[in-house]
Amino acid sequence: MSDSVGEELLSFLKELEKRREFATGYPYNLSYDYTPLLNLFNFTLNNLGDPYVESNYAIDSRKYEQEVLDFFANLYKLPDDDSWGYITSCGTEGNLYGIWLGREVYPDGILYSSEDSHYSVAKAARLFRIEHVVVNSQPTGEIEYDHFEEMIQQNSRRPIIINLNIGTTMKGAIDNLDVVLNILKRNQIQDFYIHCDAALSGMMLPFVANAPQVNFTKPISSIAISGHKFIGSPLVCGVVLTRKEFVNKIETSIDYIGSKDTTILGSRNGHAPLFLWYALKKKDYQGLAKEVEFCLENSQYLFNNLQLLNYPCMLNNFSNTVVFKKPPIQLVKKWQLATQGDWAHMVVMQNINRHKIDTFITDLKGFRYLD
User: Domain range spanning residue 164?
Assistant: First the structure.
């Protein structure tokens, strides 16, 4: 390596370290250490094809992928005989996969999602040419149930594909699965497919007492959870779970790889499952529960401090996403805040402690006094 290349990389590394210090607006756990796994980058790990069917390419991590999927299946009470899933490239791929399966199960179905749903849901509707109805949201970000019922009544003869948000992107709102199920029952709708977008909250709710119960003991069809968000990973990744009966509708055998084509992507990152496996083994259930508690307590701490300033803010139940009036652009840039219209948010992850929150509050006070 030439001296100039080494200097360039060193400079970039230092810049990344500075940026990480103030990364608060996006739901990434940046507190991790995967040093023991670095030698794995000497191998091209490709979990080619189906996660449960060995391919002819033997340099993979399929064994570890299956262990990660078992963890999530147990977490979401998906029975072994009906369990299927895979490690995705990101939460968006998980949403695309779930909605694609819904379209395959109900080719003439209509996709319903709230206006607070992630942009990947509308993208899925365009990609798969599914008729898409956008339902109003409440001010909290939760779906407006009366409007949802009104919309499905207008198309009562068509099957329903529903995207429910288990923690919306901007406000951390949770759509109430039980209310939606009651609406479907009241309107005598039997042909429905429910996909749950649980990118961040999917790794938090199962560890919180009295949190809404979203799992496969209820008639959900698929769920997407991000791996690089709450668990934390240098590789962007995710998990999608679904019922085996739905996957049977799409699978095809591919002779030259010796496996089945059941995923969206053919070649799949074999390193990501190892990072997730390592993190889950190191933390175990109790460790994850403590991290959830840490994030929720610090979210409440930030919210309380904003209230003491009489600064407009909001915090949904069971959420670590604190929404507040968009501050001056200097603070938006410094703290890498996500913004939408007149609002911004901070997602309080494992790398955001009370000292960092105090520093942000001090910055906010300083700009307010200048105003």
Answer: 37-280
